[in-house]
Design brief:
Structural class: alpha+beta
Low-confidence stretches: none
Number of strands: 40
Distance between the termini: 69 Å
Radius of gyration: 27 Å
Number of helices: 17
Strand order of the largest sheet: 14-13-10-11-12-15-23-21-20
Strand content: 25-35%
Helix content: 25-40%
Length: about 675
């Protein structure tokens, strides 16, 4: 029996596994690199072992170092989490040789299904519908171009050992196929230690729906419903939900039975996921099988009540599944939003640094609603450039989809993160998007709805009016406090007026604030009155209010004559003026940002891995200028227009900061 588990991973998933192991009375061992010596998973575990430098290929994916940690601590079980060594059959083989239980599937299942090429061949032999593609090994970029033309553009270039969006590129022409092949190969080698690549047809307008399976070593296999994972960016999932708003019971059953048949065909035992793409007519096609725990597993746990990590440990112990297919009922609806250290205002480029503020919403587990936050960070901790940019997985549950979305809206508005760029505004925007709310989504949702990237949200006037009322009331509270400052001159009592002008988001509202001990009545020029009640006090960075009888949560920061307000994906400067101040403010000149149109600025902290041009080169619009690597992803920076390079300020191997000037043009 497993009584001490080493978690061969880091961050959020390591913390997640530790929680269940502690619940089961099993001791835990963490491993950590130099970059993670102060990480949350290290402090949560009973023991911790240092395994090397920050790069994963020198620490977390070095099998010998992980095996040494197992021997040092006497762990008799290993949970690999996801990524890193989770789908590496050599690691499972090394554990087997050492007599250590692998909390995952058998080595043979990993080899046949963890490898994307082999899994497709097995699926085809089993009669499973698969997407057209080339399953053989591809030697170089030119062969990749030839194969892509044979299949027909667009194509998906994928790492055989890949996962989590790493080592994946979509190519629409020969040039993109060449570049995508090399970048995918490099990312695969750095992230998984395996640079094999395959190519398949990219099916446009699909839904990405996956089936969670659970199998034991006694031949039993069940499926636990599906997860809708169509909200993706750069092939990386951003928002997941369970169940899917698209499937009917007949399709769900067919997909589940097919997933179980595939798992049984390879002798699968543990939790695993079979991924499908589903077209508008509910035809589904096998994509791949992930022989590990998925990032998005919490939404399945929330609608089924099954702890998947606990089940994985029990299966690894040789226990028979205590659940049968008829025991699995889907209850309510669950949403998951992945909070990434990515700046949505800079085209979602990675952001690193210290979390100067990290206050997730309170976790709730009630009969009518739930909020869950799986995380691996803490306030004051650092987001490293060496690993995946995920900060947390925020999940909500409610009896219906619309209620689960509303719970998520409030939870996102209540989540405080400062110090780094993050995608909270974007997540909030998606939750309010009409197409998402309707369930009419495909994997092209983000590309279609945000083709120019994310530039924030323009709130409707009704929402701006509610925020204006809230800020007018909050400003009055702040003004009253300022009148009570000690040390003021005698006979110079400051009066707080009732009339104010609130400017935000291009709108202006003249209001009158009538305060009483319980709140304020804010009356607008058209005689509309909104009642504002809150226990907010100046200095609080989160304001929970009732405006017009409905709840409103605002992230607040002080600026001159008002507040910086963030709510529902919008980032607003809200100015609250007296009528005379408002009159004078209109006369103030606008400060313009500096002109950087003739410079290439580094969009994220990272390492310059390749420089494509030299001083004096004429570059064309769209031409690759250089490649920046950050958080295991390669980002090619391209020329925005035709020009000539006049100066280069950095070279391959240099570490660059955000907005550092890489090169200049004439």
């Amino acid at each position: 029996m497993i009584d001490k588990i080493l978690i061969a991973n880091r961050g959020e998933i390591a913390c997640r596994v530790i929680k269940t192991a502690q619940k089961m009375g099993i001791k835990t061992v963490a491993i950590y690199s130099d970059a993670d010596k102060n990480a949350l998973h290290v402090s949560m575990a009973d023991e911790a072992v240092h395994i090397g430098p920050p790069p994963a290929n020198q620490s977390y994916i070095v099998i010998d170092k992980v095996m040494d940690a197992i021997r040092q601590t006497g762990a008799n079980g290993v949970h690999p989490g996801y990524g890193f060594l989770s789908e590496n059959s050599k690691f499972a083989e090394a554990l087997e040789a050492e007599g250590v239980a692998f909390v995952g599937p058998p080595k043979g299942a990993i080899e046949s299904m963890g490898d994307k090429i082999t899994s497709k061949k097995i699926a085809q032999e089993a009669g499973v519908s698969t997407v057209p593609g080339y399953m053989g090994l591809i030697e170089d970029a030119e062969e990749a171009v030839k194969i892509s033309n044979d299949i027909g553009y667009p194509v998906m270039i994928k790492a055989s050992a890949g996962g989590g969006g790493k080592g994946m590129r979509i190519a629409w022409n020969d040039e993109e196929a060449r570049e995508g092949f090399q970048s995918s190969k490099n990312e695969a080698a750095n992230s998984f230690g395996d640079d094999r690549i395959f190519i398949e047809k990219f099916v446009t307008q699909p839904r990405h729906i996956e089936i969670q399976v659970l199998a034991d070593k006694h031949g039993n296999c069940i499926y636990l419903g599906e997860r809708e994972c169509s909200i993706q960016r750069r092939n990386q999932k951003v928002i997941e939900e369970a169940p899917s708003p698209f499937l009917d019971e007949t399709t769900r059953k067919a997909m589940g039975e097919q997933a179980c048949a595939l798992a049984k065909a390879v002798g699968y035992a543990s939790a695993g996921t079979v991924e499908f793409i589903v077209d508008g007519d509910k035809n589904f096609y096998f994509l791949e099988m992930n022989t590990r725990l998925q990032v998005e597993h919490p939404v399945t746990e929330l609608i089924t009540g099954v702890d998947l990590v606990e089940q994985m440990i029990r299966v690894a112990n040789g226990e028979e599944l205590s659940l049968k297919q008829e025991d699995i009922a889907l209850n309510g609806w669950a949403m998951e939003s992945r909070l990434y250290a990515e700046d949505p205002y800079r085209n979602f480029l990675p952001s690193i640094g210290r979390l100067t503020r990290y206050r997730p919403p309170a976790e709730i587990a009630e009969d009518t609603r739930a909020v869950r936050n799986d995380t691996g960070v803490y306030e004051g901790g650092e987001i490293s450039m060496y690993y995946d940019p995920m900060i947390a997985k925020l999940c909500t549950w409610a009896p219906t989809r619309l209620e689960a979305i509303e719970e998520m809206r409030v939870a996102l508005d209540s989540f405080e993160v400062e110090g780094i760029g993050h995608n909270l505004p974007f997540l909030a925007a998606v939750m309010d998007h009409e197409k998402f709310v309707s369930g009419d989504i495909t994997t092209a949702f983000i590309a279609e709805e945000y083709p120019e990237g994310f530039a924030g949200v323009d709130l409707p006037e009704a929402d701006l009016q509610r925020i204006a009322a809230a800020c007018a009331a909050m400003n009055r509270v702040a003004e009253i406090r300022r009148t009570r400052i000690s040390g003021t001159m005698d006979n110079h009592e400051r009066k707080v007026g009732d009339d104010w002008v609130v400017r935000l988001g291009g709108a202006e509202f003249a209001v009158t604030v009538a305060a009483d001990p319980k709140g304020s009545d804010v009356t607008f020029a058209d005689d509309t009155t909104l009642r504002v009640e809150s226990d907010w006090t100046p200095g609080d960075q989160l304001a929970k209010l009732s405006v017009g009888g409905s709840p409103l949560v605002l992230k607040t920061g002080k600026i001159t004559n008002g507040f910086r307000i963030r709510s529902r994906g919008a980032d607003l400067k809200v100015h609250v003026y007296s009528p005379r101040q408002a009159e004078l403010a209109t006369l103030m000149p606008e400060k313009l940002p500096p002109d950087t149109s003739k410079m290439l600025l580094c969009p994220m902290p990272g390492v310059l891995v390749k420089m494509n041009v030299e001083v004096g080169d004429e570059v064309q619009e769209g031409q690759a200028l250089c490649t920046i690597e950050a958080m295991k992803m390669e980002n090619i920076l391209r020329a925005e227009k035709k020009s000539v390079v006049t100066k280069i300020n950095a070279g391959a191997g240099d570490s660059l900061a955000v907005d550092e000037v890489i090169m200049e043009f004439e």
